[in-house]
Design a protein that fits this description.
By secondary structure, this protein is of the alpha+beta class. It is built from 8 helices and 7 strands; from the N terminus they run H-E-E-E-H-H-H-H-E-H-H-E-E-E-H. It has one domain: DD-peptidase/beta-lactamase superfamily (Beta-lactamase, 3-Layer(aba) Sandwich), CATH 3.40.710. The radius of gyration is 17 Å and the shape is globular.
Length: about 260
């Protein structure tokens, strides 16, 4: 049998993985004053699970959605990205450039354009930020996992509104994140981290003085590939937020891998 297409009996159910995540992430939550949510998908078996159901500010992880919306717009118009759009897309994803994000936000039609693109990609609980404040887009870990699945695929993922060329382009940029921004879900990868592709977001909130810190992407551990989304808010500073996100990502991937190791997937 093709190992990327397991029989239904070999695939752990969502409740099974959800329970494993609850056991693994409960202690992480108990040790932190911040709130967080995690979603993970084993791309080989199709097993997915979510811990937490809250809605969070995206900060700069929304830049993946902005580029996905731009690529859908170009597909609809039967064209490739312009040289300027490609330049903005590169620095927006690889270096998290905010000016480039603002320009492309306007190109896609702002919050309305982002929301329309997200609906086409299966996201149901994500809403673009008001007044041009793309970083205040609200989302859930489960929705971010849907976005990652639309970009990276996986067993049982079905089709994606994004064409393969668009998906490959997005994946390539997420694989070239600048060194100073390569933290986050990458902490769950083993070995050299080959196959890691990600986008992070961080935002200090002026109303509370606390930080939103998020990370989404693809990692490889134990010979299997996982899509992981970790969203958080309420960290006292960026460093503690990064530490929380990385701890949660490692715990989530270990929980998913343990199910695989015991023959559940």
């Amino acid at each position: 049998m093709d190992e990327d297409r397991p029989s239904p009996s070999a695939t752990p159910s969502a409740p099974t993985l959800a329970r494993a995540l609850a056991d693994a992430l409960g202690p992480v939550a108990d040790g932190s004053a911040a709130d967080f949510s995690v979603a993970v998908l084993d791309t080989r078996s199709g097993a997915r699970g979510v811990y937490g159901d809250g809605s969070y500010d995206t900060a700069s992880i929304v830049k993946v959605g902005i580029l996905a919306a731009l690529l859908l717009k170009a597909q609809d118009e039967g064209r490739q990205l312009t040289a300027r759009e490609r330049s903005y897309a590169t620095v927006m994803i690889e270096h998290s450039d905010n000016d480039a994000a603002t320009s492309l936000w306007k190109t896609i039609g702002g919050a309305d354009g982002l929301d329309a693109a997200h609906r086409r990609l299966g996201l149901t609980r994500t809403r673009g930020g008001d007044g041009g404040r793309w970083g205040l887009t609200r989302t859930t870990a489960a929705d971010q996992l849907k976005l990652l699945t639309a970009v990276f695929g996986g067993a049982g993922a079905g089709g994606s509104a994004l064409g393969e060329r668009s998906r490959a382009y997005l994946r390539s940029l997420m694989g070239r994140i600048s060194d100073g921004q390569s933290w986050g879900v990458s902490a769950a990868a083993d070995g050299t981290g080959n196959g890691t592709r990600l986008k992070n977001g961080w935002l200090p909130r002026s109303t509370t003085g606390l930080w939103d810190v998020n990370s989404i992407g693809q990692v490889t551990a134990g010979g299997r590939t996982y899509l992981v989304a970790v969203l958080s808010d309420g960290s006292k500073d960026m460093d503690s937020g990064v530490a929380l996100v990385e701890k949660a990502a490692r715990a989530a991937v270990r929980a998913a891998a343990a199910l695989s190791a015991c023959g559940s997937s």
